[in-house]
Amino acid sequence: MVYAQLRKLGVEVPRDAPRRTRRITPDDPEAQLALEIALPLAPRGPEMLALLWAVCGADHGVEPRASVELYLVDLARALVFHPYDDRGADVVAAEPGPLLPTWRCRHAWALDYDLPRMTSTFGPHVHES
Questions:
Q1: CA-CA distances (angstroms) from residue 71 to 22, 50, 117, 128?
Q2: pLDDT digits over 111-120, tens only?
Q3: CB of 91 within 8 A of CB of 102?
């Protein structure tokens, strides 16, 4: 079913795409299974935008839709972007450097409980001229 949903979004999954099945809650043998598929996507390409739309529109019943969780991974910069709904996303990196531009322009979007750690990592926000 997920493959049909992805096709409606314009995302084709190649036969040789790496995939695995895992339990959503690993310690629970009765937990629902999740299918993970690794796809190379062009930055800002139509497939990436379609998958972002699927995640952000899931709670609103927009069509076409797909039941997906999306993790966009930039291996060269060791950066992961995980949009979880239309209200937010997690951005994670192995080193602070790739996140600094986001901190500079989007620091106000950080959640209160993240601010102490982010400020200790990046320093207090300074307006750039």
A1: 16, 13, 23, 30
A2: 898 888 888 9
A3: yes
